[in-house]
Amino acid sequence: MTTNSNKIAQDLIALEKSYNERFSVGDPRGYFDGFAEDVSYFDPILKTIIVGRENVVAWIESIYSNPHIVRSEYPNPTVYVGDHEDFAVLAYNLNTFVLDDDGNEVQRRSWNATHGYRLIGGNWVIVHSNWAFAHTVELRTAS
Question: Fewest Cβ atoms closer than 10 Å to its Cβ: which of 16, 45, 110, 121?
Fold first, then answer.
């Protein structure tokens, strides 16, 4: 990776963390503000893709409730930066933690996240978002 590619990777990881941190404490607007107008979106409870910022925001608002996440881990972040440095793919695992009834920290979810970012008007915006549960099946199979 070039020096500029490394900087882009660091910036995108920091941007993504800022979106997640806002989402975790009751403010999903960070992600909404970060979506491109023509964003495409998958999540594990959808059967089809959603296209368009307005549609994605409406979907997330329809299912969102404050998750009260107290801590997040971001293991294995990987960023691919395109040759022209105006497109990048960020993939990472996300582990989220909440407090149980006794005030003890417990893991809530483990996610696999992949986001395509494009540099538009000097700002990095999400053009594709894909969320998947990290552990959904026990049997190892390709299909």
Answer: 121
Residue 2: what residue type?
Answer: T
Q: Among 82, 106, 81, which residue's Cα sits nearest to residue 96?
A: 106
How far apart CA 1 and CA 135 sit, in angstroms, is 31
Quote the tokens at residue 90: 């960020």
Nearest in space to 88 (alpha carbons), one of 50, 51, 119 = 119
Alpha helices (H) along the chain: 3-24, 29-34, 53-63
pLDDT digits (tens, 9 = 90+) for 12-44: 999 999 999 999 999 999 899 999 999 999 999
Hey, what's the torsion of the CAs at 15, 6, 127, 119, to 10 degrees?
Answer: 90
Q: pLDDT per residue over 36-49, tens digit each? A: 999 999 999 999 99
Give the separation between CA 106 and CA 39, rounded to whole angstroms: 33
Question: Do 3 and 77 contact (CB within 8 A), yes or no?
Answer: no
Quote the tokens at residue 77: 């972040």
User: What's the full length of the chain, in residues?
Assistant: 143
